[in-house]
Structure prediction request, 352 residues.
Amino acid sequence: MIDLLKTLTSLHGPSGYEQEVSYFLRDYLKDKADQVEIDPIGNVIAKKKGAKAGPAILLTAHMDEVGFIVKKIEANGFLRFEKLGGNDDRNLVAQTVKLLGEKGHINGMIGTLSAHFAKFDDAQKVRKHSQLYIDVGASSHEEVIDMGIEVGTPITWGTDLQTLGTADEPKVRAKSLDDRAGCAVILQVLEEVGNDFAGELICLFTVQEEVGLRGAKTASEHIEADAAIAIDTTAVSDTLEQTMDQTLHLGKGTGIKVMDASLIVPKTMKQQLITLAKHYQIPYQLEVFTGIGTDGGAVTYANKGIPTGVLSIPSRYTHSAIELVDVGDLLATKELVKAFVKSVTPDSRFPF
Prediction:
């Protein structure tokens, strides 16, 4: 699964510019699903029938990542930029980025003051992104244009996946684990269940989640599903900052959502996930966190309402170039999704 995650996080797909990821998922799923399509705004929808009749279950994760977009090219070749999604200004300076230029990918970095200038500056100041710039090694506006960069060129973080921790409890660090980790979970579940389940699996990989759940809102209105599970990462609170309340931890299992800013999970869906986790001894944590929203919040509104549960992959340093997840939590999430899919029978219902 780490190899799959490495491939997925190596792709570049900031909100609104997910083509690399959409095309990869379409091709990857061709031999693993009965039907695969990319809808007009880039969502990938894959459907697979089980060996027995039964309800339709929607599994969803978003493929986009937080990023940036070129706003202005300065005369000296520096680039001003705007955010795509929820980036924190404190995480920006001195980070590597990748520009998705018309002639290929271009390496760059977000500039910062040299430490030698600190005594001439306010060291406590956090500069807004509008005051920052990207350096691609160009010396003029013309050089930037020749490199294939223009106003509107999308930008992602420039970091690659690395493995950390011990062999027994490995962790992975990469850009875009939010939410390529969720995409990896769905892909792995689809492969492992084969057709040994009842009903139909609808796998939805959405675009533009980071800018308002836009892909999920669009796609779910046209999907007939009896229940849904959304898989996303979530911010843990186990580090040493004063604001951390130690309610969700890395390495303690998948997060079973109770409530966030986008939905209150129906009691029956939450309880079914808890019951399965206990039965199969899958480590889990209960998550109440109003600082986040997921595609589950959009799906639950669709049509006449789709009963939706959410599983959260705990993550440190979310929406940064160095997102960190525990492989054990990733596997626990995968096992619980798989257990839910296989628990469905031809007579399964999901009442309020």
